[in-house]
Amino acid sequence: MASQNQNREELDEKARHGETVVPGGTGGKSLEAQEHLAEGRSRGGQTRKEQLGSEGYHELGTKGGHTRKEQMGREGYQEMGRKGGLSTMDKSGEERAKEEGIDIDESKFKNK
CA 104, CA 97: separation in Å to the nearest integer? Predict the structure, then answer.
């Protein structure tokens, strides 16, 4: 049991320094806060899916993508996708792009 508590303490310390230690816990300043954020975000999506049904929920997501593409333009939307495709559980797309020397032109992200 001591090793489990020690592991939680280490994760809590990392979270206090701004690291995301729980998937979906972005923005939490402690391990517990990140756990609560992740749980709430997951539950929120599940609730909306129950309200709309599977097809309605899918359509909602598709509409959002088309709207964003219209706002950013084709090039900006593609560039955003490149950046998102580089992201991993422990690194953002921006961090990976810098590490691997991949140029992401964020000037294309501007809204029209």
Answer: 7
Q: Where does the pLDDT of residue 48 fall: very low under 50, low under 70, confident under 90, or very high at 90 and above?
A: confident
Rounded Cα gap, residues 79 and 72, in angstroms: 10
Tokens of 106: 């964020």
Q: Label residue 55 by pLDDT band (50, 70, 90).
A: very high
At residue 30, what are phi and psi to the nearest 5 degrees? -150, 165
Token pair of 42 as six digits: 């997951």
Write b or e for each residue in 30-39: b if 16 or more Cβ atoms lie within 10 A of its Cβ, otherwise e: ebebbbebbe
